[in-house]
C-alpha cells in the first residue's frame, strides 16, 4: 500500500513534518494537491494568489520529480478526491499538515471522520505557526487579546522545535493520473494583468530560501529603521512565500538565530521575529475567537454608520483618489501583487475613515489582489486599522496621508515610482499637489483633474465626517 501526502498551503519539501512521517512509514509515496473550487472552509484564493499558486505548484512538482516522485493534481471536492486517490493507489493513510486557518482546521476533523468511515486513516501534523495557538493563555486561563503580553508569553515558552531538512528521496511513487497544471488556468488570461509579477517574485521554496538569505545578508541589520520606509527595500518580502507555506515560520526563526550565532548581526532580529509574532497572533485570535473576517471583533462597531461610497471605493481600487501616497500604494498592489506595510496602513485608513467605506470591502479587494493574501492576517489587519479589532489602533486616531507621506517618503521617491504623473514635483510637495501654487503645477506639467485627479475628498472634511460617525456609533451602542 502507498502513503498519500496531501499538500495544501505547505508547498515545500523542507520542514514538512507530514512528508517526513510519510517517508518514514517506508511505503511508496503519492504526493497530491487538490484544487477544490467549492471548499467553503478552505476559502478560494483570490486572483493574484492563484497566479502565485500556479508557479508554486510548478516549482513543487519539479522538486518532487528531482527526488524520484510525482505531484498528482486533481480538481474537485476534497473528500471525494482523497478517497478516490486512496482507492486508486491502495493508500490506507493520508498525511497532511494542519494549516493555519482555524476554519479549515475544524473542517479537518470532519474530513478525518469521513475518511475513517472509508477505512482511511488521517495523520495530521502542525507546522504553520511558531507557537501552538492552543497553548498560551493569560493568568486567568483566558486567551490574550493584546499582542505584547501574548508575545512575551511565547518568548518565555520553549523555542519552536528545529526545522526538518528536505528528504533526499521520495521513494517509488505510484503513477496515478494527474491533471495538467496548464489546464487549470490559474493565471489570468486576457488581459494578463499579472504579467509583471514575475519581475518581482520567484514563487516556490527555492525562491523563499533565497529571499531569506538575501534579507539576512543585506537588510536585517537596518530592519527596525528601514521597515517603515516604502521608498527603501527594507523588509523581507517573505509574506507570499509564508502565505503558501513555501517556507515555515520556524525555519525563519532558526535561520535568523543561527545567523546571529555565526557572527552575523542580530541587530534587527528581535524586531523582525516579533513581526512574525503578529502573524502568529492573527492566527491565535482566529483560533480562540473565530474568524475575524465576518464579524467585528469589538461588537460596538456593529452600530457604526458606514457610508455607501461606490465612487470612492472604485477610485481607491484604481489608484485614482488624488491622494498621492494612497494612489502609489494601490498601484503598487495592482502591478506587483504586494504593498509595503506602512502604505497598507495608510491606504486602509483612508478608505475606512476618510471615505467611510466598511473595512470588509477593503479587505475583499486585498484578498483578491495580494499575492500574500492570508485570510487571518488580512482580516486582523483590516480590523486593526478600523479600530474594531483586537489590540487595535483607536478609531479616532486618524492617519493624515499627507503627513504620513512626508514622514515616510520624505523625498517623494515612492510616489514618483508609482505615480509618474507627479514626477515634476519634488520633496514634500509631491504629497499634496492641490496645495501648490498654479505656476508651480504648470511648470511641473500637472493639471489637477486632467493629468492627475483632484482629491476625491477634502481631507479635513473626511476627517470630521469620520469623527462624527464615531460619535454616532458610541451614542447608538
Ligand atoms: P516583513 O516586515 O519582512 O515581516 C516578515 C513577516 O512577518 C511577514 O512576511 C509577515 O508574515 C509577518 N508580518 C509582518 N508584519 C505583519 C503584520 N502587521 N501583521 C501580521 N504579520 C505581519 N500580511 C500578510 O501576510 N497577508 C495579508 O493578507 C496582509 N494583509 C494586510 C492588510 C492590512 C490592511 C495591513 C495593514 C497589513 C496586512 N498584512 C498582511 C501585514 C503586513 O503588511 C505584511 O505581512 C507585510 O507587509 C509583508 O511584507 P514583508 O514580508 O516584507 O514583511
Task: Give a quick rundown of the structure.
With 477 residues, this protein is of the alpha/beta class. The chain has helices at residues 17-24, 47-66, 78-89, 102-117, 147-156, 197-200, 205-218, 223-226, 239-243, 249-261, 269-289, 310-318, 324-336, 341-354, 359-369, 375-386, 401-408, 413-418, 438-443, 459-476, and strands at 3-7, 29-35, 71-75, 93-98, 121-126.
- Helical amount: 40-55%
The value of Rg in angstroms is 24 Å
Please tell me what the overall shape is.
globular
Oligomer: single chain
Give the name of the CATH superfamily of the largest domain: DNA Cyclobutane Dipyrimidine Photolyase, subunit A, domain 3
CATH architecture of the largest domain: Orthogonal Bundle
Q: Total number of helical segments?
A: 20
Helix vs. strand class: alpha/beta
How would you state the average pLDDT, rounded? 93
Profile the largest sheet: 5 strands, parallel
- Bound compounds: flavin-adenine dinucleotide
Strand content: 5-15%
Report the top-level CATH class of the largest domain: Mainly Alpha
How is the CATH topology of the largest domain named? Answer: DNA Cyclobutane Dipyrimidine Photolyase, subunit A, domain 3
- The N- to C-terminal Cα distance equals 60 Å
Number of DSSP strands? 5
Q: State the strand order across the main sheet.
A: 3-2-1-4-5
| SSE succession | EHEHEHEHEHHHHHHHHHHHHHHHH
Low-pLDDT stretches are none
* The number of domains: 3
Keywords: Chromophore, FAD, Flavoprotein, Lyase
GO molecular function: deoxyribodipyrimidine photo-lyase activity; DNA binding; FAD binding
Enzyme class: lyase
Catalytic activity: cyclobutadipyrimidine (in DNA) = 2 pyrimidine residues (in DNA)
